[in-house]
């Protein structure tokens, strides 16, 4: 059993930055690949970034060069640093580990 709790969302303006955190409780955090996903109103949930157990990363084309995913296995936390935010980044952001999902954190970017 893994529980995931996201934090760090908020309302910002175009060009601002935010750092999301996903903190896990449970066993074997370090062995999981962790992903950040997002879902905008009326749209399907989409992958934003993933990081494997050996810290290999993967990004959606829409966020490459702006977002950075990282992990701290000691703190059982995965971060998503989001820079140069755009209105199209507005969504609820979810953390995923295997079949486990967090409750989501809202990001709203206004122009």
**Cα distance spanning the termini:** 40 Å
Look at the structure and give the mean pLDDT.
Answer: 96
Tally of DSSP β-strands:
11
Query: Would you tell me the structural class of the helices and strands?
Result: mainly beta
Tally the helices. Answer: 0
Question: Biggest β-sheet: count, sense, barrel?
Answer: 7 strands, mixed
Strand content: over 45%
Quick structural overview:
With 111 residues, the protein is mostly beta strands.
3D architecture notes:
The protein is mostly beta strands. It is 0% helix and 55% strand. The chain has no helices and 11 strands. The strands form 2 sheets. Strands 2, 4, 5, 6, 9, 10 and 11 form a 7-stranded mixed sheet that branches. β4 and β5 form a beta hairpin. The protein is globular and about 40 Å long.
SSE topology:
Elements: E1 2-7, E2 10-13, E3 18-26, E4 34-39, E5 46-51, E6 57-59, E7 67-72, E8 77-82, E9 91-97, E10 100-101, E11 105-110
Parallel strand pairs: 2-11
Antiparallel strand pairs: 1-3, 3-8, 4-5, 4-9, 5-6, 7-8, 9-10, 9-11
